Amino acid sequence: MRVTEVECLILDGTYPYVIIRTDEGISGYGETFRRGPHVQKSAIDTIFAPLVIGKDPFDTAEIWDAMYSAGNVAGPSGALQTAAAAIDIALWDIKGKALGLPLYKLLGGKRKDRIRVYASSLRRDLMPVEEAKRAAKFQEQGYTGYKMHSAVPGAIDHPDDRTVDHVREMRAACGDDFDILVDVNGAYSLHYAIEIGKQLEDYGVFHFEQPLPIWDLDGMASLADALTIPIAAGETSYTRWEFLELVTRGRPDIVQPDVIKCGGISELINIAAIVNSHGKPMTVHNTQPIISTAAHLHWISGRKDVPYAQEYNIEPISIRDDRPILREPLQVVDGYITVPEKPGLGLDFDEDAMRWWSENTGKPGHQN
């Protein structure tokens, strides 16, 4: 079997998807991170596709190494690892389909048939009481946790930060038997993160995510030592080497790789080996609800070191909600998603819908 075509489509002007076709009529689908979609497409079309065409899709290790080498001299890992991830995931999808096996079988089998997810809100415009009511609504739907994205993006210790107010109202509305996760996207200095973190401890926050700027690994370690609530980080690390530095210098309590950012399934396996060897539990960063979610479901289902509920984006997503690109969408039922059983990723794509979205931006369209 040989790869004959690598095509990158940007859906609704936001979501870059890859379709890889082979000479045996088997196609694989991959996805990359939604920020900078035209950068990702350019990297896929001009740097990576020529490396993949003509190759055996089963040679994922050789292909990944070739993409990493090419990307390493072409630009920063964040931009290019995310592009490589889409290709790698599509190749694993092909391998599963060719063998007639779901992806989790290729990864060593599964221990769980379904994965618990928490409701991840990307809203930053809600008042504390509004957000508390929203969290309670998702609690009623069966979710056992809710992540808020608070603070002021791009600012440090901004006076308009209302994180503690949001958490206080959420705890009052949802009770003690509900996980509250706080992600501030690096918006605090160390001293302010300690001050806020100690207040979050009083409300039993499940984890405090990326409190400091991503480069301040020493500060992260100091923060982890100062607080009893877990510090979570990892969405802005892209290779096994960056994760090694994260766990040894930053010492977060929970590590969060993202398959569509860190180079795909091949590199996720390498990253997990490093994180596991340092005794750190993992969860996943997962803000894209289709291929990213499916790949994570397969991977998580077989692991004992990913014990927590996983992130799931609850905001409106055009390609999931308005005109779905899946014929059988993934469903959240009582706070769980079932691991797909069909070969590969286990997803059935509607390519007509995908091409419609690649030609029509924002009709009607929601982008998160």
Low-confidence stretches: 364-368
**CA distance, first residue to last residue:** 37 Å
Helical proportion, percent range: 40-55%
CATH superfamily placement of the largest domain: Enolase-like C-terminal domain
Q: What count of structural domains? A: 2
Strand content: 5-15%
Structural class determined from secondary elements: alpha/beta
Textual characterization of the structure:
It is a single chain. By secondary structure, the protein is an alpha/beta fold. The chain folds into two domains: 99 residues, Enolase-like, N-terminal domain (Enolase-like, domain 1); 241 residues, Enolase-like C-terminal domain (TIM Barrel, Alpha-Beta Barrel), CATH 3.20.20.120. Strands 4, 5, 6, 7, 8, 9, 10 and 11 form an eight-stranded mixed beta sheet that branches. A three-stranded antiparallel beta sheet has the order 1-2-3, with helices on both faces. The longest helix has 23 residues. The two termini are 37 Å apart. The C terminus is likely disordered.
